[in-house]
């Protein structure tokens, strides 16, 4: 009997390739990249991830204000919980001397916290992180996934036979371009990439808005009233 | 970069439509309509609007947060953090 290690590639698609060892056959099936789609969106709806993001956000916000209300310099955020595969775990140790308007600083902290909570190597995540990299030196490991995406990009391009005529296609293309400007880092992405990025980005944004709303609610209720804030009514009824 | 053509990598119209319809499921409006709108342009439009509104909401919230945090001291910040952790 073979001592085949049943190394099935479960675990919500971590990493780019996973190998499944079929017993006795020694075949290695590489799960394609497409399989990462499903887990990625579920990832954003996971309440555990929401908690992680919440903590990270609170931490970084606290570090923002500890430095004093005058200059909002961004000091290191000390999140050590399960961060993403590629992105920085130790960096962000230098402080910026520039004075950002506070709302902008908060937004950037929220965005980077979001990007760090994310798993996977989508473009918008890397765009956000590289934006911060311009302010300080962070080493971001460039994933190898990118190359494979490029291959698809080269061969894709135009769609199949025109179904709705030229006009519709032009409109669709214009909309796609506009969408590319909305999602960070996707101005030059192909159609497929862009749509996937958008899906991911929308889910992430929703999480972000939800978390910040809860946070600001908690803050406002804490500063207004001395009595403990009332819990929101439970959803299950 | 050279042409190593793996089968199924050609992007057809169908694939695009499928992706767009998948996107539709994410939008809150689409859940109400129960997939009545299938037109690509409309969906893309909705998506753009939704993202823009999310951005605006984010700006609004961060403004609020910044105001709140400025007028608060660190002690109550700790209390607030604990509380918000409990709420989740």
Automatic annotation (TrEMBL), chain A:
Q: Which GO terms describe its molecular function?
A: protein dimerization activity
Superkingdom is Eukaryota
Biased-composition ranges for Low complexity? 71-95
In residue numbers, the region (Disordered) covers: 1-20, 68-103, 218-237
Q: Which family does it belong to?
A: Belongs to the bHLH protein family.
GO biological process: one example:
regulation of DNA-templated transcription
The yes or no answer to whether the keyword Transcription is present is: yes
* InterPro entries in the cross-refs: HLH_DNA-bd_sf, IBH1-like
Assigned keywords, A-Z: Transcription, Transcription regulation
Is Cytoplasm found in the keyword set? no
- Protein name from the UniProt record: BHLH domain-containing protein
Automatic annotation (TrEMBL), chain B:
UniProt-listed InterPro entries = bHLH_dom, HLH_DNA-bd_sf, PRE
Which domain of life does this protein belong to?
Answer: Eukaryota
* GO molecular function annotations of the record: protein dimerization activity
Q: Which Pfam families does the UniProt entry name for this protein?
A: bHLH_ILI
The UniProt similarity line reads:
Belongs to the bHLH protein family.
Q: Which PANTHER family match?
A: TRANSCRIPTION FACTOR PRE, TRANSCRIPTION FACTOR PRE5
Q: What is the protein's given name?
A: DNA binding protein
Keyword annotations of the record: Growth regulation, Transcription, Transcription regulation
Q: Which species is the source of this protein?
A: Zostera marina
Gene3D superfamilies reported in the protein's UniProt record: Helix-loop-helix DNA-binding domain
Question: Any idea where the BHLH domain is?
Answer: 1-54
Q: Name one GO biological process term.
A: regulation of growth
* UniProt lineage: Eukaryota, Viridiplantae, Streptophyta, Embryophyta, Tracheophyta
């Amino acid at each position: 009997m073979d001592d085949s290690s049943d190394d099935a590639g479960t675990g919500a698609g971590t990493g780019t390739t996973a190998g499944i060892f079929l017993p006795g056959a020694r075949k290695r099936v590489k799960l394609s990249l497409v399989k990462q789609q499903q887990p990625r969106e579920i990832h954003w709806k996971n309440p555990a991830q929401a908690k992680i993001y919440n903590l990270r956000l609170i931490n970084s916000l606290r570090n923002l204000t500890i430095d004093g209300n005058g200059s909002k310099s961004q000091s290191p955020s000390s999140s050590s919980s399960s961060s993403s595969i590629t992105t920085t775990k130790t960096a962000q140790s230098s402080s910026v001397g520039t004075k950002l308007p506070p709302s902008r600083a908060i937004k950037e902290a929220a965005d980077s916290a979001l990007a760090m909570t994310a798993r996977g190597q989508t473009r918008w995540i890397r765009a956000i992180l590289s934006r911060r990299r311009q302010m300080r030196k962070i080493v971001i490991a460039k994933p190898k996934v990118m190359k494979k995406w490029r291959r698809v990009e080269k061969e894709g391009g135009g769609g199949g036979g025109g179904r709705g005529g030229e006009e519709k296609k032009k409109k669709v293309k214009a909309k796609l371009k506009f969408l590319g400007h909305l999602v960070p880092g996707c101005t030059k992405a192909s159609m497929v990439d862009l749509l996937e990025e958008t899906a991911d980005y929308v889910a992430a944004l929703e999480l972000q808005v939800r978390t910040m709303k809860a946070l600001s609610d908690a803050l406002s209720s804490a500063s207004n009233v001395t009595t403990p804030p009332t819990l929101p009514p439970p959803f299950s009824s | 970069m050279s042409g190593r053509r793996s089968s199924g990598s050609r992007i057809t119209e169908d694939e695009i439509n499928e992706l767009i319809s998948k996107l539709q499921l994410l939008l809150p409006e689409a859940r109400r309509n129960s997939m009545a709108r299938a037109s690509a342009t409309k969906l893309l439009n909705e998506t753009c609007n939704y993202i823009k509104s999310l951005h605006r909401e984010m700006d609004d919230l961060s403004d609020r947060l910044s105001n709140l945090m400025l007028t608060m001291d660190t002690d109550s910040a700790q209390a607030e953090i604990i509380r918000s952790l409990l709420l989740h």
